[in-house]
Amino acid sequence: MKPPPFTYHAPLDLGSALDALAGAGARGKVLAGGQSLIPLMNMRLASPSHVIDINRVPGLDTIEDERGGVRVGALARHSRVERSGPAPLRRALKLVAHPVIRNRGTVVGSLVHADPAAELPAVLAVLGGSVRLASLGGVRDVAAADFFVGPLESDLRAGELAVSAFFPGLPPRSGFAIHELARRHGDYALAGVCAVVTLGDDGRIAAARAACIGVAATPQLVELEGGTPAELARAVQERTDPEGDIHASAAYRRHLVGVLAERAFTDAAREAAQ
Amino acid sequence: MTQEERHEITLVVNGVARQARVPARRLLSDALRHDLGLTGTHVGCEHGVCGCCTVLLDGEPVRSCLTFAVTVDGRELTTVEGLAGPGGMSPVQRAFAECHGLQCGFCTPGFLCTVTAFLRDNPSPTDDDVIEGISGNLCRCTGYQNIVKAVHRAAELMAEESE
Ligand SMILES: Cc1cc2nc3c(=O)[nH]c(=O)nc-3n(C[C@H](O)[C@H](O)[C@H](O)COP(=O)(O)OP(=O)(O)OC[C@H]3O[C@@H](n4cnc5c(N)ncnc54)[C@H](O)[C@@H]3O)c2cc1C
Ligand code: FES
Ligand code: FES
């Protein structure tokens, strides 16, 4: 239960961080909050030869309004975003781990970590956000749909640092909701659903999106036209095919997706009507 | 294997600047316990789940088992050894003793640090707030009821003493 040895880099600015990452290549890992990387290293499931600790890099602890949404910097910790970030993130973060873990964990770190049972990747996916990646070669923005590649696998390449993530705001007459079920409060969810609905002029749901947590290798996005929450939930259930594991059977997860999706669509529609 | 590189770090623990030479992989929990001899911080799971290694970093509770000592070079830490004031045990410590908020005491340092910060941010919590506040700390002995009572009692003591 002790981490393996590594060479430690503590860059004091972004340029040196990118230099260190370029030098380390595929054997390097960024250390942000450490709330996922250090457990993996303690259990020897990860053993990077170089750890690039970005905690002293200035300018990354940001939450900034940008046209159409909010940009969250790589050192904005869960606890700070929970207090002053956009509403969907604030609500989702209440479901992420415990307050003490949230004091260190970062929103961007959680996206890069890309755990299929994590809440924030699903929030980014349902809102249609993106992640900004910087390397010595330049900067690129990757849409959520392309960023999450597999379980614990994002599109981040060797030598890249995720500098920020962009969470778009909701369109007019729209609402957001997130529901999940975990064995214990603060644990990773057995299944969860983030929903965004937009109401038409008649006050009914005209368009709906759901991103499912814990049912596929990446946050599974389902886009639907109008319907009642129950109809939409059934459509989400039909389009998902969760697997069973020691925590829950496939059939139980499937059942959960239906129940949670209906709750999420109902709440999102209520919020949209306000 | 070649000798592992060591880093000179300074940790300001309970108001005292302490130096140590540690490999980068030294967990803060181990730096406190082994390098500085402060064994009040306990280690249970080393993956963030049990909470007994919780210490205050610049006043904020964090898992010392999920922090490298080198990352917090130069920062201020408070461990359970630093909670008591010159006049004796802190209100949180007294409340835990008074309400039987501990039995074996293994989890207690983590609860005390967590609750100290929690009550500073939320001096008159509801039951739900308390349960959320201590949700990241596990106790195998007490069944939690007396810990919840102790948190409320500590809030009372702090309110009385600030009058
Ligand atoms: C007990 C416990 C319970 C938890 N429960 C939940 C939960 O319910 N839901 C949930 O979503 N999460 C949970 N987590 C994980 C927590 O949210 C993590 O903080 C988060 O997943 C990772 O963020 P971090 O800043 O700590 O990243 P780190 O641990 O520092 O890094 C994680 C990974 O991302 C990479 N990385 C991080 N930042 C960057 C960057 N800027 N650029 C490039 N690569 C980067 C690292 O190299 C590493 O591979 C839990 C953790 C613990 C210990
Ligand atoms: S030892 Fe750190 S949380 Fe268990
Ligand atoms: S008092 Fe024994 S674990 Fe809590």
UniProtKB/TrEMBL annotation, chain A:
Keyword Ribonucleoprotein: no
PROSITE patterns registered for this protein in UniProt: FAD_PCMH
E.C. numbers: 1.2.7.4
Pfam families hit by this protein: CO_deh_flav_C, FAD_binding_5
InterPro entries (alphabetical): CO_DH_flav_C, CO_DH_flav_C_dom_sf, Diverse_Substr_Oxidored, FAD-bd_PCMH, FAD-bd_PCMH-like_sf, FAD-bd_PCMH_sub1, FAD-bd_PCMH_sub2, Mopterin_DH_FAD-bd
GO-annotated molecular function: anaerobic carbon-monoxide dehydrogenase activity; FAD binding
Keyword annotations: FAD, Flavoprotein, Oxidoreductase
Domain of life: Bacteria
Domain FAD-binding PCMH-type: 1-172
SMART domains: CO_deh_flav_C
Primary enzyme class: oxidoreductase
The protein's name in its UniProt record: Carbon-monoxide dehydrogenase medium subunit
Organism annotation: Nonomuraea soli
TrEMBL record, chain B:
EC number: 1.2.7.4
SUPFAM superfamilies in alphabetical order: 2Fe-2S ferredoxin-like, CO dehydrogenase ISP C-domain like
InterPro entries, alphabetized: 2Fe-2S-bd, 2Fe-2S-bd_dom_sf, 2Fe-2S_ferredoxin-like_sf, 2Fe-2S_ferredoxin-type, Beta-grasp_dom_sf, Diverse_Oxidoreductases
MF (Gene Ontology): 2 iron, 2 sulfur cluster binding; anaerobic carbon-monoxide dehydrogenase activity; metal ion binding
Superkingdom in the source lineage: Bacteria
Metal-binding found in the keyword field: yes
Entry annotated with the keyword Cytoplasm: no
Annotated pathway: Alkaloid degradation; nicotine degradation
Transmembrane parts of this sequence: none
Limits of the 2Fe-2S ferredoxin-type domain: 7-83
Keywords: 2Fe-2S, Iron, Iron-sulfur, Metal-binding, Oxidoreductase
Name of the featured protein: Carbon-monoxide dehydrogenase small subunit
Source organism of this protein record: Nonomuraea soli
